[in-house]
């Protein structure tokens, strides 16, 4: 495993960065929704630019959460299917699922790049921020997901321990 130590260290670092990004996005969403509810219900107004922030935070939270789901092997609940098979079949099935996930995430990364490129010509309605910067999280999180899936192939670990 010493051969893969730098790679595993990179994955730990990426997981921390992704978790912080997810935490910031969720916290921002919490406060933006709270402010929006307060302003709409008590002041009968709306803070329009908060919707731009909420949409951006939502996209970041979803895709960074997907990457972390792969890191902690909580992406597919296949235990019911695997429990009926033997140990060897369970391992083969696990590798097959990981392979399908890598292929899927590679497709998400490919089309995410195209989507982000096309979104640089679009802007949020109020703040006029380029949506391409927000949508860059799609191919980035897909690439990080692939790294996490490969990490799990190198070090088979229990999802609850990390």
From TrEMBL:
<dbReference type="InterPro" id="IPR055348">
    <property type="entry name" value="DctQ"/>
</dbReference>
<feature type="transmembrane region" description="Helical">
    <location>
        <begin position="20"/>
        <end position="41"/>
    </location>
</feature>
<comment type="subunit">
    <text>The complex comprises the extracytoplasmic solute receptor protein and the two transmembrane proteins.</text>
</comment>
<feature type="transmembrane region" description="Helical">
    <location>
        <begin position="53"/>
        <end position="72"/>
    </location>
</feature>
<dbReference type="GO" id="GO:0022857">
    <property type="term" value="F:transmembrane transporter activity"/>
</dbReference>
<protein>
    <recommendedName>
        <fullName>TRAP transporter small permease protein</fullName>
    </recommendedName>
</protein>
<keyword id="KW-1133">Transmembrane helix</keyword>
<dbReference type="InterPro" id="IPR007387">
    <property type="entry name" value="TRAP_DctQ"/>
</dbReference>
<feature type="transmembrane region" description="Helical">
    <location>
        <begin position="133"/>
        <end position="150"/>
    </location>
</feature>
<keyword id="KW-0813">Transport</keyword>
<keyword id="KW-0997">Cell inner membrane</keyword>
<feature type="transmembrane region" description="Helical">
    <location>
        <begin position="92"/>
        <end position="113"/>
    </location>
</feature>
<dbReference type="Pfam" id="PF04290">
    <property type="entry name" value="DctQ"/>
</dbReference>
<keyword id="KW-1003">Cell membrane</keyword>
<comment type="function">
    <text>Part of the tripartite ATP-independent periplasmic (TRAP) transport system.</text>
</comment>
<keyword id="KW-0472">Membrane</keyword>
<comment type="similarity">
    <text>Belongs to the TRAP transporter small permease family.</text>
</comment>
<dbReference type="GO" id="GO:0005886">
    <property type="term" value="C:plasma membrane"/>
</dbReference>
<feature type="domain" description="Tripartite ATP-independent periplasmic transporters DctQ component">
    <location>
        <begin position="29"/>
        <end position="155"/>
    </location>
</feature>
<dbReference type="GO" id="GO:0015740">
    <property type="term" value="P:C4-dicarboxylate transport"/>
</dbReference>
<keyword id="KW-0812">Transmembrane</keyword>
């Amino acid at each position: 495993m010493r051969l893969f130590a730098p790679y595993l260290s990179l994955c730990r670092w990426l997981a921390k960065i992704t978790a912080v990004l997810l935490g910031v996005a969720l916290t921002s969403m919490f406060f933006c929704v709270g402010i929006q509810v307060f302003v709409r219900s008590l002041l009968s107004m709306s803070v329009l630019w908060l919707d731009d922030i909420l949409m951006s935070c939502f996209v970041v939270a979803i895709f960074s959460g997907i990457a972390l789901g792969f890191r902690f092997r909580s992406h597919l609940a296949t235990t019911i299917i695997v429990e009926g098979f033997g140990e060897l079949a369970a391992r083969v099935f696990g590798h097959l699922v990981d392979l399908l996930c890598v292929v899927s995430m590679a497709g998400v990364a490919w089309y995410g790049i195209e989507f982000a490129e096309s979104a640089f010509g679009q802007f949020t309605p109020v703040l006029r921020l380029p949506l391409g910067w927000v949508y860059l999280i799609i191919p980035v999180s897909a690439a990080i997901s692939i790294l996490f899936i490969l990490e799990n192939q190198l070090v088979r670990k229990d999802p609850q321990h990390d």
